[in-house]
Amino acid sequence: MTVTKDDLALFNQFFADYQQRYIRFAVSYIREVTIAEDIVIDSMMYYWENRAKLPPDANIPAYVLTIVKNKCLNYLKHVQVQQDAFAEMTEQAQWELNTRISTLEACEPDELFNQEVQNIVGAVLSKLPKNTRKVFMLSRYENKSHKEIAAELNISTKGVEFHITKVNRLLRQALKDYLLYFLYWFFLG
User: Which 8-state DSSP code applies to residue 106?
Assistant: First the structure.
């Protein structure tokens, strides 16, 4: 299609007459002037490129306004998709954060630490001779005195002290990283 000076003059006049109206229309939905201006320019260019396909009695201002409307709708739908995706990511991040907070709140370091120490103590005790282990268990877990243990096992109180000293030395060595906890658990607890 050949473009004449009259065609350009009519288009320029149309552009001058309607550009601001279309921009105001687009801004009322888009809320961003620069994007609204881009939509209007794109819409008018679309009209210019496709004007030959329109019937001679077409209502050009309504036609271009329909294009502006559809481009605004497409833009807003795109924004909605972005916001939905962002909301989904935010929701996922919030869930993850809540999970980390809940897990950390539920974490009882004393229980974890106590279990770890108990495992080490159990491992040391399992390697002891039967009599040494029995003396230690009676002393620490049943709170029996050296005299009561000696009477129960038919050994001297010095023998009880020997066994307990032996176990304490092995435990101190195995629990050197947990010494403060060890002291509390065995001597104050």
Answer: H
Phi-psi map region of 144: left, alpha, beta (phi>0 left; psi -120 to 50 alpha): beta
**Domains delineated in the chain:** 5-105 (1.10.1740.10), 109-188 (1.10.10.10)
Amino acid found at 155: I
Q: 171 is written with which tokens?
A: 């435990």
Q: What sign results for the dihedral spanned by CA atoms 156, 161, 162, 166? A: positive
Q: Which residues of the chain have pLDDT under 50?
A: 189
> CB of 140 within 8 A of CB of 186?
yes
**CB neighbour list of residue 178: distance below 8 Å, 6 or more residues apart:** 113, 116, 117, 120
Encoded tokens for 153: 């096992």
Q: Where are the beta strands (DSSP E) in 19-178?
A: none
pTM: 0.54
Tallying the residues shown for the chain, one arrives at 189
Burial environment of residue 129 by CB neighbours within 10 A (0 to 12, 13 to 18, 19 or more): exposed
What does the block give as tokens for 59? 């209502």
